[in-house]
């Protein structure tokens, strides 16, 4: 199967044959994604973290639940947002999963926190609207710190949420109860897109997981299947998730100089897990599977296996969780479920 645009050629036409070439190609792909998809990723700023609360008997008494304020220093002004951190009782550094999610409370339907703790992981929880509103309003949250220039590639909301996710990691990775070599990020739907974009830019993230991220996430939009969300729809309904330049291509996504395998390939040689749902046609599960295959050559340059699955469409509760690029399609609807979390914990545990 041939995937376009070409992943393994530099913009000067030279083939990518080694790690140095792939490093250059990653920078080219990030630039393309910033220009045409998510907007620029704002630069890091100094960050501090303050523990403002501590619940000792969280999750049936198995963990601490810390309330932490993350303060980003922009010089004359600061921006602060909260993070909740579940930390299992006991000594040692814990592998950390950071989830960016849709509600303020960490006790959410999407988060099986006790099961995650029982498996030995720490879990950091971020409500995405504490970083920036999910709207066309660029006056709330961190958005005013990134003035609009009209360039067509100003930071969109997905870039802002991903930026905040990285700023939380700036603090969390320095804690003496967190293993900084085993950091994972996960998100569902639009926040699955966010998790992938965060990991593409932030090389500290060893494991990235998107769940039902679909169009402009893990779905390969040049191969749209029946019921799948087209670029024209998402660009019109949620234009603020993406930079203004994407509007130029909403009528013909084939004219874009990239497809979503670029996004996954920017995570190489680290680990990425793409979770799909069998009844979620809108997110186009089969295209998400094909994107894993299309991105896989980026890992092979590093001597890695990449995606070990095939391109024949998987059925419900099928996939391949081995290799640096894992894919699984569980039975069910658009939801971040227990099986999706189990898949991520499996991938982390078998690669550390």
For the record, give the distance between the C-alpha atoms at the N and C termini, rounded to a whole number.
Answer: 32 Å
Helical content, roughly? Answer: 25-40%
Largest sheet entry:
10 strands, mixed
Rg: 19 Å
Taking strands numbered 1, 2, ... along the chain, how are they ordered across the largest sheet?
Answer: 1-2-3-5-4-6-7-8-10-9
SSE arrangement, N to C: HEEEEHEHEHEHHEHHEEH
Instruction: Briefly note the structural class of the backbone.
Output: alpha/beta
Topology, please?
Elements: H1 19-38, E1 47-58, E2 63-73, E3 78-88, E4 94-101, H2 113-118, E5 122-127, H3 157-172, E6 178-188, H4 190-201, E7 205-211, H5 231-237, H6 261-265, E8 271-277, H7 285-295, H8 297-300, E9 318-320, E10 325-330, H9 338-349
Parallel strand pairs: 4-5, 4-6, 6-7, 7-8, 8-10
Antiparallel strand pairs: 1-2, 2-3, 3-5, 9-10
Helix pairs in contact: 3-4
